[in-house]
Amino acid sequence: MSTADLGQVPGMERPTGSGHAAGRSRNRRRIILSELALAITFTLTMVLGVVEHENLDSPAVFLTGWALNLLVLVLCCTLPWSRIPSRWVLLVPLADFVAVGLARAAAGESLSGVGLLAAFPVVWIAASRIRTGTAVTLTVVASLAIIWLPLAFTATPASYDSLSNPILLPIMLTGLAWFVSELTKDNRRRQEALRASQAALRESVEAGRERERLLSTVLDTVSVGLLAVDAQGHDILTNARQRAGHAGAAPPGNDDPTEAELLIFGPDRVTPIPPEQRPVIRAIGGEDLENEQIWLGEGRSQRALSISSQSMHDDDGVLAGTVVSFNDVTELVLALQAKDDFLSNVSHEFRTPLTSILGYLELTLEYGDRLPDDAGAFIVVARRNALRLEQLVEDLLAINAGTFAVHPVRADVGSILADAASSAEVRATRSDLRLVNRAPSSLPAIVDPGRLAQAVDNLLSNAVKYNRRGGSITLDASLGDDGLVIEVADTGIGIAAEELDRVFERFFRSPSVRSSAVQGVGLGLLITRSIIDEHGGSISVTSTPGQGTCFTIRIPQPPAAPGTPD
């Protein structure tokens, strides 16, 4: 038996689970091979004994020991070891001890080394799954037996010399038993640790495969295309949605196009985007994208995608890769285009009758004194509102066409705000509201007077409409390092936090407002923001539901020239 087999001793393994049959087959094979090694060595010794038979003390006993060893080998080959308890396998090396003892007793001085054959059963016992102390004890008893028992069958009386002279063999065998037993234990511990490590590795691999299957299923379930690339731009991961989108953007006849070969167009759907300006290329370069819109493919299958990306960095801050998401917004873009087209068409249709209405109102006003009492005042109000509606139509057409513009000049913002407050005060009083104008009476700034008045009118109108009886409206303005700042605050119903980012969207009206009796179409704040944007400024809103809302306009001002009065 080699040291490689230590810890897997014949007859002492414990196969479990599906490995029972294979384990029993290996166990039987080891038992036979281990006994065959001793039988072959014993047979060679027997041949040597036959040659030296004249010097043997008892050739018959020598042959008996060899025959016993062959009998044990035959039994090892024929016994059903799968049905025999493993502890009974130890009888095999003990029987070998008897065979070696007989051969040694018969060999005499001519073959004094026959006793070394006991090393085979010693290794067998020591490598078994028994305690080191038990293995050493069995070795001591068996080795002393093979050197002392033959003395009982000789005519020569036992003496101290006859008992102590051959003691070297038991000492050697005992040391061998201890060494093999400890080595076997260490080897067995290593094997058990290796099996545990292999089991943990198998569990880890299986868990990894399960997570991979779960991740693949989740990625293929989401309605967003996903692409992960490494720092060199090589694909790490894609989902089914992204693969389908990639295939849809491939040129005809090219089944595996590169990023530069894909059919990718700008917002106008016809202008190809240069490869270096394409979102994925920029994302691979480390740029984080947010809702970049492109069009993929051509013809009726063309799709609009909104692309976002997030870079990945390692512990040293070095770019390790990028994750890119592709959201199909085709239906949304087409719906917005249809809404814009509808608004533009309706605005054009409004323009003709409004022109006619204004013309007839102006002709009517020319009658002057011939009009019935108070009719002239009514017609003036009708003309003013018709002009306001005409301006609204013009603004909507300008916004849709991208031609909305302002013409800033030096103007007195204090006077503009005073006029706006005076106009809104009538409506505020009618609604039992208190309007306070805290703006300075004179506040020179660079603005478009008409457009700024329109923006403030819209904010004051909303403050009146969405307020509560007994509430208040505050108008304030200042000029400082941040430029011109105008605030319109009210104590009205307020705006929910999730709706604050949408109040400037076209046609947006909150659910609570739509269910109320307050009239409106959701265009006033859109026009107000367009006016402020064209001034190069910004408009923000803060609100607490049930407490009120505050809109803040900020318009940057050019630095005053030296010697120029404020």
List the main descriptive attributes of the protein structure presented here:
14% strand, single chain, alpha+beta, six-stranded antiparallel beta sheet, five-stranded mixed beta sheet, 566 residues
Strand content: 5-15%
Beginning-to-end CA distance, first to last residue:
107 Å
Count every beta strand, where a strand is a DSSP E run of 2 or more residues.
13
Structural class: alpha+beta
Mean pLDDT over all positions: 82
Strand order of the largest sheet: 2-1-6-5-4-3
Radius of gyration: 51 Å
Helix content: 40-55%
How would you sum up the major sheet? 6 strands, antiparallel
- In DSSP terms, counting alpha (H) and pi (I) runs of 4 or more, how many helices? 15
Which residues form runs of ≥5 with pLDDT under 50?
Answer: 1-7, 14-19, 561-566
Helix-strand topology string: HHHHHHHEEHEHEEEHHEHEEHEEHHEE
Q: How would you sum up the global shape? A: rod-shaped
What's the short version?
This protein is α+β, with helices and mostly antiparallel strands and 566 residues long.
Tell me what you see in this structure.
The chain is an alpha+beta fold and 566 residues long. Helix content is 50%, strand content 14%. The strands form three sheets. The protein has a six-stranded antiparallel sheet. It is rod-shaped and about 165 Å long.
Write the layout of secondary structure elements.
Elements: H1 20-51, H2 59-78, H3 91-107, H4 119-126, H5 132-148, H6 160-164, H7 168-221, E1 225-230, E2 235-238, H8 240-248, E3 264-265, H9 279-284, E4 292-296, E5 303-313, E6 319-328, H10 330-365, H11 375-401, E7 409-412, H12 413-430, E8 434-437, E9 444-447, H13 449-465, E10 472-480, E11 483-490, H14 511-514, H15 524-534, E12 538-544, E13 548-555
Parallel strand pairs: 8-10
Antiparallel strand pairs: 1-2, 1-6, 3-4, 4-5, 5-6, 7-9, 10-11, 11-13, 12-13
Helix pairs in contact: 1-2, 2-3, 3-4, 3-5, 4-7, 5-7, 10-11, 12-13, 13-15
